[in-house]
């Protein structure tokens, strides 16, 4: 009790540094990269200031720059040259992601390349699965999603990351990869992915908006967190090596529950809308964007995330160890 106990004793300028419980480092961060095969020059994304779609021809250069800055892990999203009902450009061996992975791996073997495994950027209707009428078909989608993951593994991806929120997606991918000799390729599952309003800038970035309905029949209802634990548990049983909670900032409670309930690496996705909000406030001069970002990333880590996917990665490197 006071005056014996004085919390301020350990808050002196010279002591705080050695007493930090968590510290975000560059090794914790995964950089999202939008690879577009339809452009020749980088194109800035309107709703994500200072973030660009990268032409396929320049993707290796982009990865090289990040590696120089000390960032080692990347998650790739593709903007393909064609779209159809079933998203077949997603598993085309000469698709944008397959080509990008081969190019990057040829030049930078050590870069950690994670691929987003989904259909929404590749389907004409923009949904994450095969559609019949206005229904998103689960089991039909699994067959395709497994092929997509296999094509990424064949191209040389280090980790595949299914994000379509179909039931059984991890099992379908694990079975496919194992039967084709890729039993060593890990799966990072977007296990607890919420139907969130925070994704809208991404949909502009990846050209993946949907033409009807919403994603609420497959992505989670944000009123729930028991359900997230169930999703995570199932994915672990199906063979997920890393599980993810998405979004991050408004879902720190979920990250914490997952971390306390399971003994697997947890990734958190600091999504597009979270990035855009900080950028907007910074631009208005209302907040110090970098300071706020550092605080947000620290909070995500403190909540229990082992890895953070964030659009802020590059701009934060000079802030981080
Ligand atoms: C694809 C996918 C989405 C995001 C990541 N993968 C969009 C969606 O589900 O609509 C969102 C990422 C972000 O907002 O930064 N299924």
Question: Could you explain the architecture of this structure?
Answer:
With 321 residues, the chain is an alpha/beta fold. The chain has a single domain, classed as Aldolase class I (TIM Barrel, Alpha-Beta Barrel). Helices cover 36% and strands 19% of the residues. The chain has 11 helices and 12 strands. Strands 1, 2, 3, 4, 5, 8, 9, 10, 11 and 12 form a 10-stranded mixed beta sheet that branches. The chain has a two-stranded antiparallel ribbon with strand order 6-7. A hairpin with a 2-residue loop joins strand 2 and strand 3.
Give the uncertain stretches in residue-range form. Answer: none
The average pLDDT value, as a whole number, equals 97
Strand content: 15-25%
CATH C-level: Alpha Beta
Tell me roughly what share of residues is in helical segments: 25-40%
In summary, what is this structure?
The protein has 321 residues and is an alpha/beta fold. It has eleven helices and twelve strands. It has one domain: Alpha-Beta Barrel (TIM Barrel).
SSE layout and pairing:
Blueprint: H1 13-16, E1 29-36, E2 43-45, E3 48-55, H2 59-68, E4 73-79, H3 96-107, E5 112-117, E6 130-132, E7 135-137, H4 138-155, E8 159-162, H5 169-179, E9 188-193, H6 200-205, H7 226-238, E10 242-246, H8 252-261, E11 266-270, H9 272-284, H10 289-303, E12 307-310, H11 313-316
Parallel strand pairs: 1-3, 1-4, 1-12, 4-5, 5-8, 9-10, 10-11, 11-12
Antiparallel strand pairs: 2-3, 6-7
Helix pairs in contact: 3-4, 4-5, 9-10
Ligand PBG is lined by residues 116, 118, 120, 128, 163, 199, 202-203, 208, 215, 271-272.
């Amino acid at each position: 009790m006071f005056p014996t106990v004085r919390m301020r004793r350990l808050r002196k300028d010279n002591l705080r540094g050695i007493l930090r419980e968590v510290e975000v480092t560059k090794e914790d961060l995964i950089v999202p990269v939008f690879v577009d095969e339809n452009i020749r020059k980088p194109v800035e994304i309107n709703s994500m200031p200072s973030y660009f779609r990268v032409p396929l021809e320049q993707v290796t250069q982009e990865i090289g720059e990040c590696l120089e800055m000390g960032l080692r892990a990347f998650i790739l999203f593709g903007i393909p040259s064609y779209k159809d009902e079933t998203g077949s450009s997603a598993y085309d061996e000469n698709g944008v992601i397959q080509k990008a992975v081969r190019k990057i791996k040829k030049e930078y073997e050590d870069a950690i390349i994670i691929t987003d495994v989904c259909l929404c950027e590749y389907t004409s209707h923009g949904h994450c699965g095969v559609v019949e009428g206005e229904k998103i078909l689960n089991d039909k989608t699994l067959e395709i999603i497994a092929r997509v993951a296999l094509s990424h593994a064949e191209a040389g991806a280090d980790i595949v990351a299914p994000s379509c929120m179909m039931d059984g997606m991890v099992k379908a991918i694990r079975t496919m990869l194992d039967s084709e000799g890729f039993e060593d390729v890990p799966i990072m599952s977007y296990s607890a992915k919420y139907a969130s309003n925070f994704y809208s800038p991404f949909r502009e970035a990846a050209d993946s908006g949907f033409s009807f309905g919403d994603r609420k029949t497959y992505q989670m209802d944000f009123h729930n967190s028991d359900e997230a634990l169930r999703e995570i548990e199932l994915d672990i049983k199906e063979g997920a090596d890393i599980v993810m909670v998405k979004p991050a900032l408004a879902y720190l409670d979920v990250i914490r529950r997952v971390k306390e309930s399971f003994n697997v690496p947890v990734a958190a996705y600091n999504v597009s809308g979270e990035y855009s909000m900080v950028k907007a406030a910074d631009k208005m001069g209302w907040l110090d964007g970098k300071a706020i970002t550092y605080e947000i990333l620290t909070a995500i880590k403190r909540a229990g995330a082992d890895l953070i996917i964030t659009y802020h990665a590059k701009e934060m490197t000079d802030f981080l160890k």
